[in-house]
Amino acid sequence: MSFAVPEYGERPRTLTPAWLRPRAAAAAACLVLGLGLVGGAATGSWLTGDGAEGKAGTGFSAAGALWHSVPVDKLFPPTVQGTGAGPGGADRTWTRIAVAPDSGCAEAFDPLLRKVLAPVGCRRLLRATYTDATQSHVTTVGLMFTKGDPAAMSALAARFRDERLDRRTDLMPRPYAAKGTAAALFGDGQRAAWTVSVLTDAPVVAYAVSGWADGRTVDSPQPAADAVRAGAASAAAQAGLGQEAQGLADRVERRLRQTAGPAKASPS
To answer: Region 239-261: what's the mean pLDDT?
Structure first.
């Protein structure tokens, strides 16, 4: 095999042997195609927001708009089934007896809790009150839609966790006592068990507070997380009021996430 030698002053040329030319051409084609695919994928991701961060942001925003875009029955259904949600794994059925008009948060929280929640702001508050099958227990469930971004919600959730704010009796949410219902006597003094959950995948603070329907005063309310523990001996724990608050809050929170999924996928 011989290669041509350039004349003096002529620019050297690199000649590819004939048997290498098809492979070189194929390699070049693969390189161009690969670059095109990578570039196209990146461009598509930027244009459509297919990245994980884009999806998370879209879902967060979609959840924050639910307070005015879905019927109340989607978030607070007329009947909630609590399979295994009662003491000892007993089933529960809760019936909605009142829905509060959507509002701000000024009257829904004690002043100190309102101060703790202030960093994320209150955009809108939705509340409903339920009773159990015997109508001896009443529970108010609330969804506070905030103005906070993901960072603000994460910071608030961390503070609740680190400082155990969800265990403090001076940070209980207030019930919604609707006249003419089994919850008519459900006031601040009747709060027996409660739970507060700061979501980080949605601009929402979910909560529930339970008590007796007969208006009895509770001297020592107990966080639902403590009242549902085996061996808990408080009156609220013995009556299953921790399960009432925790069970309803969990199911309403779950419905919020389920509703936010289709909302995220729908065109705005």
So the answer is: 92
> To the nearest whole number, what is the mean pLDDT of the chain?
80
Tokens at 199, concatenated: 């979501």
Distant-in-sequence, close-in-space partners of 247: CB < 8 Å, separation ≥ 6: 82, 85, 86, 92, 94
Do 143 and 126 touch, CB atoms closer than 8 A?
yes
Q: Which residue has the higher pLDDT, 222 or 265?
A: 222
Contacts of 261 (CB under 8 A, 6+ apart): 59
Q: What is the pTM of this model?
A: 0.76
Residue for token digits 């994980």? 52
Asked if 165 and 171 count as a contact pair (C-beta separation under 8 A), the reply is: yes
Ramachandran area for residue 56 (φ above 0: left; ψ -120 to 50: alpha; else beta) = alpha
Residue 257 near residue 200, CB atoms below 8 Å: no
CA distances from 40 to 37, 48, 52, 55, 105 (A): 5, 12, 18, 19, 47
Reported as a pLDDT band with limits 50, 70 and 90, residue 56 is low
3-state secondary structure the chain: CCCCCCCCCCCCCCCCCCCCHHHHHHHHHHHHHHHHHHHHHHHHHHHHCCCHHHHHHHHHHHHHCHHHHCCHHHHCCCEEEECCCCHHHCCEEEEEEEECCCECCCCCECHHHHHHHHHHCEEEEEEEEEECCCCCEEEEEEEEEECCCHHHHHHHHHHHHHHCHHHCHHHCECCCCCCCCCCCCCCHHHCCEEEEEECCCCCEEEEEEEEECCCCCCCCCEEHHHHCCCCCCCHHHHHCHHHHHHHHHHHHHHHHHHHHHHHHHCCC
**Terminal CA-to-CA distance of the chain, rounded, Å?**
69
